[in-house]
Amino acid sequence: MSGMDMVTDILQREGGPLHITDILAAVEKRFGVELDRESVVSAMSKRVARQDRFMRTAPNTFALIPEREDS
């Protein structure tokens, strides 16, 4: 499981935005993996810019982009 997959799992479980500090703590608790803060923020920021998976709700606070329900 990649770092981004672990972050996605944490955000899905939370159901709302989390600060990067809380995301990293939850990843370490759930998966026993310590992710590099700068690397994760950089990767998530790139995805935010592409509107891919994550959105930024406040400084260093991220959430999943809601899935669109096609009618």
Tag the structure with descriptive keywords.
71 residues, alpha+beta, three-stranded antiparallel sheet, 3 strands, 15% strand
Q: Mind explaining what this structure looks like?
A:
It is a single chain. The protein is α+β, with helices and mostly antiparallel strands. It has one domain. Helices cover 52% and strands 15% of the residues. It has helices spanning 3-14, 20-31, 37-49; strands spanning 18-19, 54-58, 61-64. The protein has a 3-stranded antiparallel beta sheet with strand order 1-3-2. A hairpin with a 2-residue loop joins strand 2 (54-58) and strand 3. The radius of gyration is 12 Å and the shape is globular. The termini are far apart.
Q: Widest sheet: strand order?
A: 1-3-2
Q: What is the distance, rounded to the nearest whole angstrom, between the alpha carbons of the first and last residues?
A: 32 Å
The chain-level structural class is alpha+beta
Specify the overall morphology.
Answer: globular
**Count of helical segments?**
3
Radius of gyration: 12 Å
Overall mean confidence score, pLDDT: 94
Topology of this structure?
Blueprint: H1 3-14, E1 18-19, H2 20-31, H3 37-49, E2 54-58, E3 61-64
Antiparallel strand pairs: 1-3, 2-3
